[in-house]
Design a protein that fits this description.
10 helices; 22-stranded antiparallel beta barrel; mainly beta; single chain; about 850 residues; five-stranded mixed sheet
């Protein structure tokens, strides 16, 4: 690990110095290059005496136009603003988009929520309700956004269903990332960050024109921190080191004045530590206060005496313990870190027919490979450790024809996508109360079958009739046989079983759609926008939970087979073979794969009315409908029902809004009221089980709603100071939703809020830019975000409460008036707020995942 980081430091430093040394003479010969303020910026430059806000240009409707002329709630940020606010990842957008939040699941898969609409899952294979696009190419799985964000022209956050122009899985909205394209100007930059936690970040870009028709651009960002920000409570170890490399190569080609071709390769490599949890309580079923006696010795004392009090507090099992093989229970080798890569290819072809028509083709291919070791025990015991292995290949092709007349801008198009996914993880749970209980009961069945069965049934064994006693003894004797040796399992084999198992899901998904959109300029003041898309989605799935080298065989062959037979009144299913699927199909009375084949179609649509009585005022009203495609979970599945798919969900959105330029265009106020009618929301839930009390599954909630206010104000207070404020007021709740709680009891979630949906969220950013002397400028940024309390689970259980919190970030620096260099200092979470965005349980311990503590550093940037 250390040698790899050192080598990369050397390579990147050497490359940066080589570029700067080699290009300095050319820059000196060409003289100082004047750089214009990007059109995407909301703030004026320091020498802009007109005191007027500039309008950022966006492509929310697949064509470039002013953000203030689009009848949609959009927040957009240009390159300089993103740099000043140090937005280096998709997660960082939370600080400036109050209605957007990110919670990190224990498997490291981000959950995006926008205006309360999200899909809470741990699975790499799951799509989000918030779509992400990079240069118009879909990144349909949130894990694909794990790399750094760099060399960006702008980021647009579109709120509400975007199904007509962008397609599936955008019921909440989408994040549209637009990278800087190759240009006809020779330019470049190199940047260096140093900070606490031994942070060293490098970033660089070079843009080269290769003649009149070809331009190339190469950019990269490498992020490292050699000291982890999490500290083990029980011993002197840290966790949370960062080692990420992002890169992009782009080529633009204009064979004729009407034909543009652009190609790019965008990728990242992530070898960072995986994040540890903060264990703070028992689950009700494993709490010693409720009579549980199967917890690992010492766990109760640890939780009682080591409550987390800061972001740094965390714990995990010692490496020597989890790497050891115990009997047939294989350990998890290697450090707790990622070994993941992503590469995305894009080919765009744009041909102009005269002045009023063009055809656009977009081809994308993404490949993600993930291996990672995770320990989300939250305590220094082997409660739940995972070795994750996943792969996604995603192919997409879009073609559209666009045109315009005096009164209508229109487009029609077609889209096809195909994804192939393997999502697997091997779980180690040697110290988990539940596995301990099952293996102990299995040993009891082998040693004393009648008393053990009677105790589980809650009856006095002396009251059992002789025939039933004989039946129980014969049943246990018949199942307590190792299918490989033909011999009964020994007590040590049984007690050491249920150490490890593997969950795996293999998917093949396809989507095909046709779509059309038109902007009708009915009068000079009134515009009508209509859009429609027909989509057909299909998903083929095969998967299960399965034995690993015999670890599950003793407990499944004895415990599960006995109780399936007694509970369902059937003969025991056939014995579990080594490395066979141990997911039980009750209908067929067998262990094996779970399969599903689901095909669904839908029609997304959107109607918008825009009224522009003056140049500085837009009033709009819209109705739209979008869909999220079906989802199949990859669960630790004892029963086949746990891996059944949830069908597609539907959201119908109603929105009215205003965009007003005020005070001689020094203040821009945008606000909208929205109401969402939610059908068949995909929700992680439970169903009752006679053996395990309750088992996890994915379920459709029939009804739900979300409504509220979204507002943003940008105010040019002086020539040098701009304030940007945001406010989201939100109410979410389920309609009637009969389901099952974690204790196997029937319940109805009617009236409960959605997860991770605070009622109030606010943000404020102050951006300052002024000249100090004829050669020096001063630039600063301060941003703050606050959200009210929310829930990560049962809203009536305070253990799953996420209290309100606020985070403040800032930077200040000096730069050369010629924009060739800048030196700055920066900090994130300046007040060192202890907060958490995710709470979950590992079926034994309830744990939090805390946000990062205060980080700070200095940066140097040189441009040429």
């Amino acid at each position: 690990m250390v040698s790899t980081v050192t080598l990369r430091h050397s390579l990147v430093t050497g490359a940066s110095l080589f570029i700067l040394a080699g290009l300095a003479p050319a820059v000196a010969q060409e003289g100082t290059v004047e750089t214009d303020t990007p059109a995407a910026e909301e703030t004026s430059t320091a020498d802009d005496s007109n005191m007027r806000l500039q309008s950022i240009q966006v492509t929310a409707q697949r064509r470039e136009e002013s953000i203030n002329s689009v009848g949609m709630n959009i927040q957009a940020f240009g390159e300089d603003t993103l740099s000043d606010l140090r937005v280096n990842s998709v997660d960082d957008l939370q600080s400036v988009v109050p209605s957007f939040s990110v919670s990190q699941s224990y498997q490291g898969v981000p959950t995006y929520t926008l205006r309360g609409i999200g899909f809470n899952t741990i699975n790499l294979s799951a799509t989000s309700t918030v779509g992400t696009y990079v240069d118009e190419v879909a990144y349909p799985y949130p894990i694909m956004n794990s790399g750094p964000v760099f060399d960006i022209e702008r980021v647009e956050v579109l709120k509400g269903p975007q199904g007509t122009l962008f397609g599936r899985n955008t019921t909440a909205g989408l994040i549209n990332v637009v990278t800087n394209k190759p240009s006809e100007e020779f330019e470049g930059f190199s940047a260096l960050d140093v900070g606490n936690y031994e942070t060293i970040n490098y970033e660089g870009m070079i843009n080269v024109p290769f003649g009149d028709m070809v331009q190339g651009r190469l950019a990269a960002r490498y992020e490292t921190s050699d000291k982890g920000w999490q500290e083990s409570i029980s011993r002197g170890e840290d966790r949370g080191k960062i080692d990420k490399l992002g890169y992009r190569a782009a080529l633009a080609f204009q064979p004729t004045s009407d034909l543009n071709i652009d190609m790019s390769v965008n990728g990242w490599i992530n070898k960072s530590d995986t994040i540890g949890g903060q264990g703070f309580a028992f689950t009700p079923a494993t709490d010693p206060a409720n009579g549980n006696t199967f917890n690992v010795p010492g766990l109760a004392d640890f939780l009682a005496n080591n409550q987390p009090n800061s972001a740094e507090d965390a714990d995990w099992a010692p490496r020597s313990a989890r790497e050891a093989d115990i009997g047939v229970g294989q350990g998890v080798d290697g450090p707790l870190e990622e070994d993941s890569t992503f590469i995305g290819y894009k080919l765009g072809v744009d041909y102009q027919f005269g002045d009023n028509m063009r055809i656009v083709s977009l081809t994308g291919y993404n490949d993600l490979q993930r291996e990672a070791n995770l320990d989300w025990s939250g305590v220094p015991y082997q409660i739940l450790i995972q070795d994750v292995d996943g792969e996604i290949t995603s192919l997409s092709q879009e073609i559209r024809l666009e045109g315009s007349t005096d009164r209508v801008d229109w487009l029609v198009g077609a889209y096809y996508g195909k994804d192939e996914i393997t999502d697997s993880n091997r779980t180690l749970l040697r110290d988990n109360s539940n596995s301990n209980q099952v293996s102990t009961v299995a040993a009891g069945l082998a040693a004393a079958p009648v008393p053990t069965v009677a105790a589980l049934l809650g009856v006095d064994p002396s009251l059992l009739p002789p025939a039933q006693i004989a039946q129980i003894e014969a049943l246990v004797a018949g199942v307590n046989i190792d299918p490989e040796t033909g011999q009964p399992y020994s007590l040590p084999e049984i007690l050491n079983s249920f150490q490890t198992y593997e969950d795996i899901g293999e998917f093949e998904t396809e989507t095909a759609s046709i779509f059309a959109n038109a902007n009708w300029q009915l009068t000079d003041e009134f515009e009508l926008i209509t859009g429609i898309r027909y989509t057909e989605d299909s998903q083929d799935y095969v998967g299960c939970s399965r034995d690993v080298n015999g670890s599950m065989q003793p407990n499944v062959n004895i415990f599960n087979r006995v109780f399936y037979s007694l509970t369902y009144g059937v003969a025991p299913p056939a014995a579990l073979e080594e490395n066979q699927c141990n997911t039980y199909n009750e209908t067929e009375n067998r262990f094996g794969n779970v399969t599903s084949d689901l095909t669904e179609d839908n029609i997304s649509w959107r109607v918008v009315g825009n009224y522009t009585p003056t140049d500085d005022l837009l009033l709009f009203a819209s109705v739209s409908r979008g869909f999220k495609s079906a989802s199949t979970p990859v669960n630790a599945a004892s029963k086949a029902e746990q891996n059944a798919p949830a069908k597609q969900e539907q959201l119908t959105a109603y929105e009215v809004g205003v965009k007003a330029g005020l005070l001689d265009q020094t203040l821009q106020a945008n606000a909208s009221l929205f109401y969402y009618d939610y059908k068949d929301k995909q929700v992680s839930s439970f169903f009752p089980d006679d053996i395990y009390t309750a088992l996890a599954r994915l379920q459709n909630a029939p009804e739900g709603e979300a409504y509220g206010l979204d507002a943003e104000v940008t105010w040019l207070l002086t020539d040098y100071l701009t304030a940007v404020g945001g406010l989201t007021l939100l109410q979410t709740e389920y309609g009637s939703f009969p389901t099952t709680d974690f204790a196997g009891n029937p319940t109805n979630l009617q009236g409960d809020p959605f997860l991770y949906s605070p009622e109030r969220t606010m943000s404020l950013s102050l951006l300052y830019d002024d000249t100090l002397t004829d050669t020096l400028g001063l630039r600063g940024a301060l941003s703050a975000r606050w959200q009210s309390d929310s829930t990560a689970g049962d809203p009536d259980n305070p253990l799953y409460d996420i209290p309100s919190y606020g985070v403040v970030n800032g930077s200040i620096g000096v730069y050369g008036i010629d924009q060739n260099w800048e030196v700055s200092i920066w900090g994130k979470n300046l007040l060192d707020e202890y907060y958490w965005q995710q709470i979950t349980s590992n079926a034994n311990v309830i744990l939090r995942f805390a946000g990062r503590p205060r980080t700070f550093g200095a940066s140097l940037t040189y441009r040429f």
